[in-house]
Amino acid sequence: VLRVLEQIAPSVFALPGDPIGLQVGSPESEVERILVALDADPRTVTKAVYRNCQLLVTHHPLIYRPLSQVHYDDPVGSAVQQLCAARMAHIAVHTNWDCAPGGINDALAEQVGLEEIRPFGSGATVQQFKVVTFVPPAQLDAVLDRMAAEGAGEIGLYRRCAFYHPGTGTYEPQPGAKPYHGEVGRREHADEMRLEVLVPAHRLQAAIQAMLQAHPYEEVAYDVYPLHTPQLYSLGRVGRLPRPMRADELRDYLAERLGNPHVRFYGKPGAIVRTLAVIGGSGGDYLKEACAAHADALLTGEARHHHTWEAWARDIVLFEGGHRETELPGTRALAQRLRDLLPSQQVEVLFEDSV
Fold it and tell me: By residue range, what is the domain housing residue 209?
């Protein structure tokens, strides 16, 4: 399960200091049933125990800071005690799922009906590598397709990005070799394409293995170059609403979409909103970056007092949709991704969305 979660929401996407990953339990534990939820509070742990789960996966970490003691009458201590008593493991998938494609903020953008969705704002920076190999022209697409399936060649909203150029390779097969082209003991010259692909650090080994498996050569020549231009995986998403709306009309629209009648907004009621930025949870600090992304409004879960007047000062409308309500769509999406990637005959994935 940890390996699958690393594929869904790579740990390198987490913001600095975020306590993600296995918080309680052993990585060797057997798992047959998983409960996915927003929080690992005592009530949710009780439900996981009642449903005979061996693993609780939540968006929010249970332990944010190191514990110097575990008191059973404390909410965090009570949850830890219940988990240990039931021999249940707990994994947190927090800001790495916020930044990940298909994660919290992509799901929120889809939930509120945004179109032409794109990333915005700060987030996680990941080291990039350039992988270069040399492929027969007829096999170029097959090798590139396999590498792209493992996350190579992704640049912003584009995938399968690469550069290639024709050239000539030369070699002399030795006894015991099984050359793709040519004969043992004879010097050969072969038409080849130099293929260059960008790969993020967390996908490098998988992309190389895919390349080696798809490449027709017995001995594959390739180079890996570390780059000094890291790739940014932004936390926020911004997109176009289905139609322009006044701020007060948009509040009602968001209330219906999020299932929360208590959506609030700060700004001019008559302001026309065409482009909406979204950040689930606590995203008030992203007002400046939402403006830089040319958003007319920012939807987040909750904001602090100073964010309300900052929105007025920046002439952008700020919507509070509820911390829980803005992160539930992404938590539900996490459960579905686990169902898609784990063998259903071996592992059952449940979802808990009650308060």
Answer: 128-229
pLDDT digits (tens, 9 = 90+) for 128-154: 999 999 999 999 999 999 999 999 998
Residue 355: the pLDDT is 62
User: Which helix (H) or strand (E) segment is 2 a member of?
Assistant: helix 2-8
Verify that 279 and 253 share a domain, yes or no.
yes
In the chain, where do the E strands start and end? Answer: 21-24, 33-37, 55-58, 89-92, 115-126, 128-135, 163-171, 188-200, 222-226, 231-246, 264-266, 272-282, 297-302, 317-320, 348-351
Q: Are residues 27 and 174 in the same domain?
A: no
Q: Does residue 242 sit within a domain?
A: yes
Residue 66 has pLDDT above 90, yes or no: no
pLDDT of residue 4: 93
Angle between helices 204-214 and 140-149 (to 10 degrees): 150
Residues 164-216: pLDDT tens digits? 999 999 999 999 999 988 899 999 999 999 999 999 999 999 999 999 999 99
Alpha-carbon distance values, 23 to 15, 39, 233, 269, 353 (Å): 17, 13, 24, 44, 21
Q: Of 207, 229, 251, at which residue does a domain stop?
A: 229
Beta bridge partners of 272: 246
CATH code of the domain containing 347: 3.40.1390.30
Percent above pLDDT 90 for the chain? 91
Say if residues 80 and 70 touch (Cβ distance below 8 Å). yes
Overall domain count for the chain: 3
pLDDT at 354 over 80: no
In the chain, what are the helix, strand and coil shares in percent, each to the nearest 5?
35, 30, 35
